[in-house]
Design a protein that fits this description.
Length: 240
């Protein structure tokens, strides 16, 4: 379920980036942009079931709600470890954030287990998380999360990237950022024509365009996608 499909600019209908992944074994928050916890509450997600958080990168529009999440879990006296997966620098960043907010972002009765994703997929049970570097600051990653026989790919924030089609190849759902209208003015994000080229190569089953700035948020972006199954993502949309 999508909890946020927006950008760094506040929008009444689009919270910061985030999705809630419901697996039999536990639930995961993929990106924690501002407003995603509120969207989760609106959707009735059960924070007790959260097993971990995966961050595509540490820009505030993707990571800010990690702070109130940790505070909420601390207040609820969570006893199970919380897993945090992210790109290079995630462990030091979390340590600095927790130090700055001492003691409110440390769980009293459980650790936050941080792992930085590298070239090898991270696995737990049948859950696997493949990460590849994106063309974007903040330790940014593309992600492919596979479990229970299905795979969801995330572009994260990225400029044109040699790894994106690999991560999205034949994915059941591809969440792809589409932040700009024209690629040449936008080296750290994607424009519709670039997304279309990735889809031609990767052939995902279904694509939702997300991280939509107002100037690209409309049917014009979809017209650029040709024969591919593509929709504009919306907050609280459910898949699967
Ligand atoms: Zn962003
Ligand atoms: Zn970003």
């Amino acid at each position: 379920m999508l909890l946020g499909t927006g950008t760094a600019t506040p929008h009444p209908l689009r919270a910061g980036s985030g999705a809630w992944l419901i697996l039999e074994r536990g639930h995961w928050l993929v990106d924690a942009g501002p407003g995603t916890l509120l969207r989760g509450a609106q959707a009735g997600v059960d924070l007790e079931r959260i097993e971990g958080v995966i961050l595509t990168h540490r820009h505030p529009d993707h990571a800010a709600d990690l702070l109130p999440l940790l505070f909420a879990l601390r207040a609820r006296r969570r006893t199970a470890p919380l897993q945090l997966l992210g790109g290079p620098g995630t462990a030091q960043w979390l340590a600095e954030v927790q130090r700055a907010w001492t003691p409110w972002l440390s769980l009293r009765d459980a650790p936050v287990l941080v792992e930085e994703l590298g070239a090898t997929p991270w696995r737990r049970g049948d859950l696997s998380v493949l990460a590849r570097p994106a063309v974007h600051p903040g330790g940014a990653l593309h992600l492919r999360v596979a479990a229970e026989g299905r795979a969801i790919a995330w572009s994260g924030d990225t400029g044109p990237s040699p790894h994106l089609a690999e991560v999205a190849a034949k994915a059941d759902l591809f969440l792809c950022e589409c932040a700009c209208i024209e690629q040449r003015e936008c080296p750290k994000h994607l424009a519709p024509a670039t997304v279309r080229a990735v889809l031609d190569e990767a052939q995902p089953q279904l694509t939702w365009l997300t991280h939509l700035y107002p100037e690209v948020d409309g049917p014009e972006a979809l017209r650029a996608m040709g024969p591919h199954r593509v929709a504009l993502a919306t907050d609280l949309a459910r898949w699967g």
